[in-house]
């Protein structure tokens, strides 16, 4: 599948290795997706579009679309956030490293995923900037002291 080739080349370009310390290829991505992540079928029956498809429709780049979604998410008064660990290998480290995929969304709105090598406050602080609405999260302290002056943190 063509998408697995893009995923593998991106992971390799970023210097990430599989759990067994090997470079990524289409087969390894496919096996991981079959184990944990549903396979995306382009043009399938769905009510949403990918950032890549949106960029094609608007004749712009994926980075522009990501920025637009982020800004749209931050204009609302309510966001939900959570982080999920993801094991990756980093060149020269010689062992698995626990990285995190941070998720930010609004009910019935766009979902943004932000990959960070750590679980520190820098990720949410960078993504949320001076956000001044309600952020619903679990009790993890990385969400403390982020956002603007009117920022409110709500628990689950």
Taken as a percent bin, the fraction of beta residues is: 15-25%
Contiguous low-pLDDT stretches (5 residues minimum) are: none
Mean pLDDT value: 82
Determine the number of helices (DSSP H or I, runs of at least 4 residues). Answer: 5
> How far apart are the termini?
38 Å
Blueprint (SSEs and pairs):
Layout: H1 2-13, E1 16-17, H2 26-36, H3 51-58, H4 62-75, E2 78-90, E3 96-105, E4 111-116, H5 122-128, E5 134-136, E6 152-154
Parallel strand pairs: 2-5, 5-6
Antiparallel strand pairs: 1-2, 2-3, 3-4
How would you sum up this structure, described in words?
The chain is of the alpha/beta class and 156 residues long. It folds into two domains: 1-42, no CATH class; 71-156, no CATH class. Helices cover 33% and strands 24% of the residues. It contains five helices and six strands. Strands 1, 2, 3, 4, 5 and 6 form a six-stranded mixed sheet that branches. A hairpin with a 5-residue loop joins strand 2 and strand 3 (96-105). Helix 1 packs across helix 2 (26-36). The radius of gyration is 17 Å and the shape is globular. The mean pLDDT is 82.
What's this model, at a glance?
This protein is an alpha/beta fold. It is built from 5 helices and 6 strands; from the N terminus they run H-E-H-H-H-E-E-E-H-E-E.
């Amino acid at each position: 599948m063509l998408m697995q080739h893009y995923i593998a080349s991106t992971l390799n370009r970023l210097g990430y290795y599989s759990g067994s310390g090997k470079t990524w290829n289409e087969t390894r991505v496919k096996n991981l997706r079959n184990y944990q992540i549903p396979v995306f079928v382009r043009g399938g029956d769905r009510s949403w579009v990918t950032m890549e498809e949106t960029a094609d429709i608007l004749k712009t780049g994926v980075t522009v679309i990501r920025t637009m979604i982020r800004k749209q998410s931050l204009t609302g008064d309510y966001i939900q956030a959570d982080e999920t660990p993801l094991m990756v290998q980093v060149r020269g480290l010689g062992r698995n490293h626990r990285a995190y995929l941070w998720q930010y969304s609004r009910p019935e709105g766009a979902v943004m995923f932000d990959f960070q090598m750590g679980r520190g406050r820098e990720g949410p602080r960078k993504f949320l900037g001076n956000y001044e609405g309600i952020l619903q999260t679990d009790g993890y302290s990385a969400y403390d002291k982020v956002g603007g002056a009117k920022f409110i943190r709500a628990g689950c």
